[in-house]
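Workshop exercise sheet. Pairs work together: one partner reads the sequence aloud, the other fills in the structure field after running the prediction. Swap roles for the next sheet.
Pair: D.N. / O.F.
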Amino acid sequence: MHGVERQMCEKKQRVVVVGASPKPERYSNRAMRLLIEHGHEAIPVHPAVKEIEGTPVVKSLAEITADIDTVTLYVSAAISSSMQDALLEMRPKRVIFNPGAENAPLRDALESNGIQTLEACTLVLLNIGQF
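Structure field:
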């Protein structure tokens, strides 16, 4: 494991969950719960919900001013493509494309701007200690 990857696994992170859902059966909701359980600061993003798992929700990436370690995407490529400028401005250390959220043009744009990307499942990464 490389230094940056090892550091990401060990330290508690500020994680933006794009497409967070208040529905307990949704993977994005499970990710919120597991991130919190692992001691990470989870910031849910959803345009129409006020609170998820006891955490205040932001309507858009533009509302987030803090430094972000990871953005984990649970939205379609059509939705995430519209967030490209906001993601580039946010400059997270990495962006995780969960299954079903893959977006090659966005991935390429992020990587060409020095932002690490990963096509993986946030739940699996958390459960195996590789987050």
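Discussion prompt: Confidence is low (pLDDT under 50) at residues 1-8. What would you look at next?
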